[in-house]
Every structure is written in C-alpha cells, then in structure tokens.
Design brief:
The structure is a homodimer. With about 150 residues, chain A is of the alpha+beta class. Chain A contains 6 helices and 5 strands. Chains A and B meet through strand 1, strand 3, helix 5 and strand 5 of A and strand 1, strand 3, helix 5 and strand 5 of B. Chain A binds a DNA duplex (25 and 25 nucleotides) through helix 4.
Chain lengths: ~150, ~150
DNA sequence: ATTACTGCAAAAGATTTGCACTAGG
DNA sequence: CCTAGTGCAAATCTTTTGCAGTAAT
C-alpha cells in the first residue's frame, strides 16, 4: 500500500532532491497530520526526535514542498504565522481566529470551482487557498460577543 | 448616490470611531481601487497627499477595517506581505506569484459556497479568502518554464 | 474638554541569509 | 568524491507597541 508519505518521498526523488532524515520527518508529519501546522509547530513537534533540527531547515523544506506543490501555504489563522496544509486536494479550510486552529471541510463544489478557474482565467495555476475565518463552536461559547466588551 | 466610500464612513461612525482624514483617505483608496494593496502600497500611495502619514496608522486603520468586516485580509501574493481587499462580496482572487498582482474573478458559485459553509460548519464566519495562485498570462510569457532553468 | 487617534521610534516576530561543516548519492 | 543540505547566528522585513502630542467629537 502506497502511503501519502511515500508519495512525498517519491516526488522529492523525482525532483532530484536528497532525502535527508529531516526532510523525511517533516514530510511524514505533514502527510500524516490533519493539523495545519506552522513552521514553529513542526519544529517543536520534531525537536524531541531530532534535537539538532534547525528552524531554518524546517523553513527550507517547507519552501521546497510548496514549490513541488506537495503542500499548500494557507496564510495566517489570526496568529501572524504561515500555516501549511499537507492535503492539496481541493477542499475548504476553516480557521478559528480565536484558537488559531484550522480544519478541513470537504466540498465537492470546490473541485469544480478550481477547474473553472483553471479553464477560464488564462492563469497557470500553482496553488489554492480557500479559507474561511470565524469562531469555532467552542470559541463562540468562550467569547460570546466579539464586537461588544464583556458585560460590566 | 451612495458610494462605497460612503458606506465605509457610515460604518466607522456607527461603530463610534472617529473619522480622521487619514482614515478617510485609506477608506477612499480601498473603496475605489480594483487593486489589492499592501500596507506599504497604501502608505506610498497616500504619502504625496498626506506627507505626515505614518505606516503605523495605515496598519492601525487596516486592522480596524478588517475588524469591522469592511475589508478582507488576503494573505501574501508571494511577496510576504498582507494584501487587502476592499471588496467583501464573495468572489475569487487570483494572485500572480511572479508580479504579485491580485485580480478579482466573479464566480456566482462562491456565493453559494460561502452560504453552505456558514450553514453547515457551526462556525460564526467573519471573513473569507478564496485565493488561487499561479502565473498570470503576461508572466507566463516572461518566464516560460518554472521548473527548469533557462537553456544554457 | 475628553480621550481616541496619530506619528515617531523602538521592539517584536516571523522568515531569510551567509557560511562553514556534514552527509546523501 | 562532490555538492546539496544542515545548523547556527546574524540580518531582514513586516507588523506591533509605547508614549507624548494632536485633533475629532
């Protein structure tokens, strides 16, 4: 059975890039997680296993993977840091601007949308970022009003 | 006739915020332009008219406008700077990662998509970012191959 | 008159870069 | 071997912050 990690590895090889343990670890993390980590999160997550890992290497690898279109850069989730998505299939991302978590949302409609854009725009598409911002159900309970201050 | 600028002004007033010349100028720019400027671009554009304008004020105002949902923050267009969109109607943004320009693309489909997300996600939606990345027709001619280096 | 807003300069953070060393192929 | 990739530290660049002065209401 071919895992998503295998595809990452294969793509790196095909591009003539070296498969270092650091790259493998980062690929495995991104291929496996449903999270949408930032560079720092990846660094923190792998540090225990690779104590010598450098944040610069994480950024390097993320750039490489974005170039190869293996992952997408989603932009900030209200925390001023780039979040990365290991899932490049057309789908929706939902970011909570309070807890800064990002979740995926399947939507067949998006698939069609992407094809439509590719067909009609004249652009050579290289990536997508379909992201909605808001408050997740939990954070809505925690912070009931956004525009008004708490009742005095 | 009520202009888009008027709506900006009205919304600021309703929120109990002061209508300073700086804010007015920034609102007018965002309400008028089809561009998707960064803070720096706005600063540069208004500097001739408001020589005392501060970049900090631009950032301040942009934050205010995003909070009031008058504009959307689109994230980077390959230039590591936040681009702002004065048009909050559901639509698609197309960014060229070579010339860093962002254009709008109407797509009735997106309207439906947003409603669908709002209805099914349980999230309290506050903003959207439907962005596709690629090479615009002009930049495709300028840089025909992205993956291969120029012929030696 | 109040106090929100501005402008400046300094600070904070995220990301990038230069360079010597290491290791994948 | 050979050079791509790593790790470190310093640099860069965008965005934020603290604060005193200014001006909108």
């Amino acid at each position: 059975m071919i895992t998503r990690t295998d595809i990452f590895v294969q793509t790196l090889r095909q591009a003539g890039l070296r498969l270092t343990p650091q790259r493998l670890a980062i690929c495995r993390l991104l291929a496996t997680t449903a999270r949408h980590p930032t560079a720092q999160m990846i660094y923190d997550a792998l540090r225990p296993e690779y104590p010598s890992l450098s944040l610069a290497t994480v950024y390097n690898t993320l750039d490489v993977l974005v170039q190869l279109n293996m992952i997408h850069a989603l932009g900030s989730a209200g925390d001023d840091a780039e979040h990365y998505d290991g899932n490049t299939d057309p789908h929706i991302n939902l970011a909570c601007i309070s807890c800064h978590r990002v979740i995926d949302l399947e939507a067949p409609r998006v698939q069609t949308l992407e094809e439509e854009v590719a067909a009609n725009s004249g652009y050579h598409l290289l990536g997508a970022r379909v992201m909605y911002y808001g408050l997740c159900p939990e954070c809505q309970q925690r912070v009931p009003q956004t525009t008004e201050p708490a009742t005095p």
